[in-house]
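Worked Example 4.2. Consider the chain below.
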Amino acid sequence: VLKGIAAHYVMRTDDRVALMQRQRTLIAELVQALLVRGPESLDRMFADDWVSAADDAARRRVVIDQVASLTDASAVTRHRALTS
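Applying the procedure from the previous section yields the following structure tokens:
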């Protein structure tokens, strides 16, 4: 019951929903930018994984792993650097 109340009154407020949408957009744009730029835009260990990836699906997984390893602040910084 408490989780439902929190979700309704905290997580689903208009300002919170707008923030989460902006975050989803940033992550999607970051993933796309990393996919386009390839291994030179990835951290070393992820770049090595990219090079050894067998196909596009495996390279996408490498990019997803890279993005998942970022903090919120570093994701914003990386996004700004790759899309500006």
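Residues 30 and 81 are 10 Å apart (CA to CA). The chain is about 80% helix and 0% strand. Compare this with Example 4.1 before moving on.
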